[in-house]
Amino acid sequence: MDCKRSSLSNLQLQKDGIDYISQMSDDILVVILSLTPFKDAVATSILARRWRYTWQKLRQLNLDGGDLRILKSESEREKFINQVNSVIRSYNKPTLGGFRIRYAFKPNHQHFIYDCIEFAVNKKVEFLELDFMNQFSFLFSRGEGYDVFKSRVVVLPYLKKLILKGVLVREEAFEAFLMNSPLVETISICDSPYLYSVHVNGRQSPNLKHLKIMDNFSVRSVNLSDLNNLVSFTCRNSDRADFCLAHLPNLKEINLQFGRFDIHNVFIQMSSCALSLQSLSITVLQPEPEEEGYSKILDSVPMLPNLKNLKLTIGGGIDDQLVFLASIMNACPNLETFSIMSGWTSPKISMKKARDAANPHKHLKIVEIVDYVGRKRDFELAEYIIRTFVALKKVKITVVRSSPNYQEAFRSSAEGLVKLTEPKGVELIVL
């Protein structure tokens, strides 16, 4: 009897749910569908006549084939391609806000990818993401891959945001894209090894606000000029690249990560945005090896009066490393947060000289020391920071991951700093 009553209750709940959904407006149904995986949203078309075309009112099509690290069989690929083809044939609205496709295709699916891009063009998309990065990155070494912008000019006059991962983009195609997409505000290109140079100016891309070039190991030069609306710029590479930054009056955020590059020139180029810059992250893995090289770098650092956040990763054998650090930080008098990962190998430290050279930094509240390993110079770096900067409220130390015994020793070293922080009321966090 109880089982029968429970079944009747469940049926009544289902009926009530269906009745409730049937009373919802189309706008609410579309919001619900937008929160579900796309294939499930399409599958709702079989639930009822009213649902048949509701998914077509979605403003974003997110065609995600799942984990790209898992090798798909040919039949699985064909099934996914057929599903995508069915979707783009069925979508009959004249415009589409965003189109994203993420899957481990093979190079012989190039024409299918062209069809997807043509669909995006015809639907006047404002956001386009093509993510083919992980599974077939090794093909780039043989000159294969998804060179979707090579054989035809892609015209996306309504596009505002472009994300490309694992898509081959060459310099000529990139410049042609810029000229044919005047409204674009955000560009992110990841893992495109044939992009040797990135040259963008205000005539090509007057509305560009955010530019990100990631893991494109062939980039040798970057030239950005007359971009009045550019707010953030990220460039990450494992090798050296030359920089030219000119007339970027509203650039607030720079993130540069390189194995080798002319840090002296980079600091000189920052003069074009020195007044607007608020956040700077910079990696210097191989600084100049000679003493005069360090002086040359420091002489090139412009005053950055509005910089609030600074993140440094510094390697190499720098003598008087704390003086080097103090000189860079002195150019940023209004810092509020500071993060440093030190790979210094030189044992020479002049603590008194560094403290005499440093400004007190009355606004610096939070400092993070990353990959702390408990060496004498690591402890001295933390000690110098705690003793020097008068407004500190919190010091966060993240010890490097290692075997349990070593990691415990690293933590013990970091926790030994508590005797310096407690009298000053500074919170010490060791992770």
Structural description of this entry:
The chain has a 14-stranded parallel sheet with strand order 1-2-3-4-5-7-9-11-12-13-14-15-16-17. It has a three-stranded parallel sheet with strand order 6-8-10. By secondary structure, the chain is an alpha/beta fold. The longest helix has 21 residues, at about 1-20. It has helices at about 1-20, 25-35, 40-45, 75-90, 110-120, 170-180, 265-270, 290-300, 320-330, 350-355, 375-390, 405-415, 420; strands at about 60-65, 100, 125-130, 160-165, 185-190, 195-200, 210-215, 220-225, 230-235, 240-245, 255-260, 280-285, 310-315, 335-345, 365-370, 395-400, 425-430.
Task: Outline the fold blueprint.
Layout: H1 2-22, H2 26-34, H3 38-43, E1 60-64, H4 74-90, E2 98-102, H5 110-122, E3 127-131, E4 161-165, H6 171-179, E5 186-190, E6 197-201, E7 210-214, E8 221-225, E9 232-236, E10 242-246, E11 253-258, H7 263-269, E12 279-284, H8 291-300, E13 309-316, H9 321-330, E14 337-344, H10 351-357, E15 366-372, H11 376-388, E16 394-399, H12 404-415, H13 418-421, E17 427-430
Parallel strand pairs: 1-2, 2-3, 3-4, 4-5, 5-7, 6-8, 7-9, 8-10, 9-11, 11-12, 12-13, 13-14, 14-15, 15-16, 16-17
Helix pairs in contact: 7-8, 9-10
**How far from one another are the termini?**
58 Å
Oligomer class = single chain
**Helical content, roughly?**
25-40%
User: What profile does the largest beta sheet have?
Assistant: 14 strands, parallel
Class from helix and strand fractions:
alpha/beta
Radius of gyration: 27 Å
Globally, the shape reads: elongated
Instruction: Enumerate the spans where pLDDT stays under 50 for 5 or more consecutive residues.
Output: 1-20, 135-143
Write the H/E string, N to C: HHHEHEHEEHEEEEEEEHEHEHEHEHEHHE
Strand order of the largest sheet: 1-2-3-4-5-7-9-11-12-13-14-15-16-17
Average pLDDT confidence is 78
**Beta-sheet strand percentage?**
15-25%
Count of DSSP E strands?
17
